[in-house]
Amino acid sequence: MMKALVPFLALVSFAVAAATPEVTTKADPSTNFSSYKTYYWIVQPDDASVEMHQHLVEGIDARLKAKGWTLAANGDVGIAVNVSTSKTYRPDARGGVGFSGSTGGSDTMTMRQLEVSTVVVDMFDAKAQRAIWSGISTGPLPRASDKAGAEIDKGLDKMFASFPPSPKA
């Protein structure tokens, strides 16, 4: 039974490692996003590493600029970003068991620690002082900073792909 389970777990652990960030967004349906042209930072990601902080701020700035928004001291929209990181474990199977059941070495099963980060981007109408949009990205974050930056970009790309939301008819 264990020998048959090892290839399956190896496949599952590969799928988890290769997963892209899960992203959800939610907008206030009564908000007319075409009336907003400027934004300012309320809260920047203080709970993140220096590299992650910089990558998030620059990444969000670039995506908003690409949408025609401008950073301004008294902007139309306030942005707050919070980051939380947790550790989880996933199975890491190694060994010489093939799909045919033949062995070529010893089977080992270890648990690999994986860091999972959640980035929450909230936007508020500065005049009305109400929430208008929220984006949440959750996914594994590699330890290497260049790979972590690529994962942050994937999450931000998905988060801002349909931003600003289309007006509801």
Tell me what the structure shows.
This protein has 169 residues and is an alpha/beta fold. It contains 3 helices and 6 strands. The chain has helices spanning 2-17, 50-66, 145-160; strands spanning 22-27, 38-43, 70-71, 77-94, 108-125, 130-140. A 6-stranded mixed beta sheet has the order 1-6-5-4-2-3, covered by helices on one side. Helix 2 links the parallel strand 2 (38-43) and strand 3 (70-71). Helix 2 packs parallel to helix 3 (145-160).
Percent range for β-strand residues: 35-45%
Unreliable parts? 1-18
H and E order: HEEHEEEEH
**Main sheet summary:** 6 strands, mixed
Q: How many angstroms separate the termini?
A: 56 Å
What is the CA-atom radius of gyration, in angstroms?
A: 21 Å
The dominant shape is elongated
Structural class: alpha/beta
* Strand numbers in spatial order across the main sheet: 1-6-5-4-2-3
Helix content: 25-40%
In round numbers, the mean pLDDT is 81
Count of discrete alpha- or pi-helical segments spanning 4 or more residues: 3
In short:
29% of the residues lie in helices and 36% in strands.
Descriptive labels:
29% helix, 6-stranded mixed beta sheet, elongated
Secondary-structure blueprint:
Blueprint: H1 2-17, E1 22-27, E2 38-43, H2 50-66, E3 70-71, E4 77-94, E5 108-125, E6 130-140, H3 145-160
Parallel strand pairs: 2-3, 2-4
Antiparallel strand pairs: 1-6, 4-5, 5-6
Helix pairs in contact: 2-3
